[in-house]
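Morning F.,

Quick status update on the modeling queue. The single chain you submitted on Monday has been processed. Sequence for confirmation:
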Amino acid sequence: MRGSSGTSATRDAGVSPTTASYAVTSLNVAEGVWYWKNRATGLTTSSAIGKDYTGSYAVTAWGANSTTTNYNFLDEDGGNFVKFCCEDLITAGADVDRDGKLDTMFHQVILRVWDDGNKDGCIGCWVLPTTADPYPRQDNYNDTWANVKVDNKVPPVLTCPPNLTISCEAPITTNGGTTWLPATPSVLTFTGVPTAWSACGVPAVEYKDVVSLNQCKSGTVTRTFRIAGKAEVNCTQIITVSSNYNSTVVWKFLGSWLSSPGSTSASTKRWTEYTPNKICGVQANGGSTDITDPNVYINYGLKVLETTSCDGPTETELRDGRPFYVQGPCDVIGVNTAVERYDFEDGVCRKWVVTYTFMNWCNNYCVRFKQDWIFKDVIAPVIDCTPRPIFQQQANCTTGITLKKSATDLGGCTVAAPAISAWLKWEVFVDAWGDGTWDYAYSSFRTVCTTGDGFCDVTYGGISSSTNPAGTIPTKYLAPTVPGADATIDFRYPITGKYSHHKILWRVYDGCHNATQCEEIIEVKDLKPPTPYCIHLSTALMQVPVGAPAGSAPMVEIWARDFDRGSTDFCTDQADLKFTFNNWLPNADRINSEHYFDATGKGYDITASNTIKYNAGEYQRWLPAQKSSSMIFTKANLPGVTLKMSVIDWNNNVDYCSVDLRLVCNDPINCPPGSATRIAGNVHTESGQGVMNVDIVTTSNLPENPTIYKTDNKGNYGLEIYTDTELSAHKNDDVMNGVSTLDLVMIQRHILGIEPITSPYKLIAADANHDGQVTASDLTEIIQLVLGTTKEYPNNYSWRFPIEDQVMSVDRPFPYLESMIAIQGPEMVITTL
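Structure tokens below.
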């Protein structure tokens, strides 16, 4: 490039030809910029036209960088020919069909012819505009063009990878669809990729498979490769997939279950670890086995799974509770879950046996696992253990004991009618007399015993009876009950004795074997008061002795037992009954020693001061030897008092009867006058002759009665009474007085009806055997007496004394009265016998 004399410079059409280090890529004349590429780095940059590659040095002459003939820098071969590249096969460069769009593989080639129009000696060169010459004259040119189609006539070459056999565990990728997919090394790592070549570089390869694999991943894969866009250029690879695998991973059960619902990790050991090695129904070595149950593993001794639903384990629970296993990459494991439900007590409690059967589709190996599920009923029955009242002894101090208990249960499944719901079962152990030994039992878990009284010997673990050396307990069947109903037992033997205690152990089970027990102590005791029998008494106050201290008064000490007439108690012997007045009880701590006591049972020592209170009636006195108390009565109690004679048994049960105590005072100085009644009378024969030495017997409730008084030689008697008194006459001597052979004749004639005896007194005398009639037997006894064979009548007194003032039958006086009652009062009483 040459310089000029003007302010403008002549430039060539390009400032730098293509060299070994740089290549010109394009020229933008309008912008005055050319673009070039550094061959070493591949980077493209630009420089202003007229500048070199760095953009800082001006090129002053055409061809300054070349030693050959001048040429345009975009035409590296100096215009000898036009070059096309592989890129031109896929790029669009000419609108051949004139549809306004450039067509692929077609390119426009332009031929431009220049002159040296500006006469600067450089053909095709031009002058850069300057400020002084903004419009310099350029060289002239003319263009012509042609459309060229670029085509590759060299066919590509495709070589498939070799056929191969791989294990089913290999992670191959297959394309069994209808779309061809790119055959890239990253996808076909395990099976290989084909080798492809073409004149314009490595062509794209795609593939599609025909997959013939079973569920166990074994079989063949027929893989077809082709050049993308060149379906005619293809090849085939046969891939055989074997059912054998090379890794150590095999189908194996870990003996575990899922750690939690939804988990994929194993947790607690539940079964024995096991690697299936048996074909269903046939052992792997060809031996036979049970076709239906080739290999069963049960979680014996391990925790039973629980469900809160009466419908059994849910699908989630069944899935999460089954055995955990690791399968090989070529295995297809199927599982069959069979659930068997068992109802206990008609379904109140339920159990499910779940059988998991696993089979490998690929080799028919089988294994079964069994798992127990239960309905989770943790609510134990509730038993009524309220303390019982004391059992009262019955007649003869013996009673039979019947006990009842009921229980309820809120647990368990609802039992629908008409199922039997008597599902509470019982065990009852009886320790009679509470001596620590179980004497007999009742149980719902035993069969009915048909021998004896229904008790049969049963052995209980750790429980035995001392009455049976074999360590068994006599047991009787006890029927189950519905909730709320009573279970009833009877003591095997009646309980005798005034007091005893016994231990009973009640144990109740529901249908799920939840149990509750109740241990109770029962008391058998005499709670019935004694039966009192009493008599009324009369007594006299004792006279004040001569020389007694001033102020002394007539008094008498009466014992409560004096009023007893045979009181009884069915549990306490008569000799052990205690007697007091007015339901007072002696002091319990001093029961074996003499003491005073008051109405509250408080005891006091026998002292002078306490004796004063005793004499005043404030205390009673207890005498252990008599098992009775006493009280002091004075003239203040005249003419008598009504008392309670209290009878007390061993248990201080007490009952009483009301008694009258009639008091008289025969102390003329210290007692009021008129306290006694004078009685006088006479005993005589029918003819009026007095009878001497007759015993007049007085009977009353005075302590000194009965008392005997004698008649004088005229048959008279006299005495004083202090209470209503019964009088009777007795004489059994002088047997032959008034008896003669004439009497024998008269009796005989009476018996024969010849001449009846008309005197009632003579009929009484003729009744020698005292049987209420006159017969030959009477005549016989009198004859024996007259003859001296006997000395007295065997069944009669020698004298009988009917009361004179009574109406007697002439022909039959029997029976007749021989006693009378004299009423105590201020007037004398005259009596005749």
